[in-house]
Specification:
It contains no helices and 15 strands. By secondary structure, the chain is an all-beta fold. The radius of gyration is 17 Å and the shape is globular. It starts with a strand and ends with a strand.
């Protein structure tokens, strides 16, 4: 059994929440709860390069996201307010599940939801863009990340012009299982 941030992953029983206050330290399956896997308000910035920069890497335990589960990633950003594009990207297992490309703003909050489609290896996310709760001309993002295996979720930033700055001010990564 692997223990990670309040989750126990057993290859037979699947993911369960850990609660040291309860006998045996377990709560049944992670059903019906929102579990914060990672959260930080320590800023991470990029400037001086146009190469993609990794701000955070969050391990997602094997089997933690159920057949109809979801991951919700909420990020808060600040940036140089000019016409140059600053891009934030969220990847799960190396596959992009959300992004924004923004210019002419000093800050934004962005949220990405990826949901399992009754499968450990089939998910759907909303179209990328700078406003995660508005209509989009982009199509939904279908992915095939094997969540029965441990995966990394990464938050990255890229600048179009190296003299700009993009800062990940904070993030929260939640696991939701019905």
């Amino acid at each position: 059994m692997t223990r990670f941030l309040g989750v126990a992953v057993d290859p037979i029983e699947g993911a369960t929440l850990l609660n040291p206050q309860m006998t045996g330290g377990r709560i049944a399956r992670t059903s019906g709860v929102s579990l914060v896997l990672a959260q930080s308000a320590v800023p991470a910035s990029v400037t001086g390069t146009t190469s993609e920069t990794v701000f955070a890497t969050i391990p997602i335990p094997a089997g933690a996201m159920g057949l109809s589960g979801a991951l919700r990633v909420t990020t808060q950003w600040s940036m140089t307010n000019n016409a140059n594009t600053k891009t934030g990207t969220i990847r799960l297992g190396g596959t992009t599940i959300g992004f924004f490309g923004n210019s002419a703003s000093a800050s934004l909050q962005h949220q990405v939801n990826t949901r399992a489609r009754n499968s450990m290896a089939n998910q759907v996310s909303g179209a990328g863009g700078s406003n995660s709760f508005a209509g989009s001309t982009g199509t939904v993002v279908a992915t095939t990340v094997d969540m029965s295996a441990a995966q990394n979720l990464t938050i990255t930033g890229t600048l179009a012009v190296s003299t700009d700055t993009l800062t990940l001010e904070s993030y929260t990564v939640e696991l939701l299982n019905p």
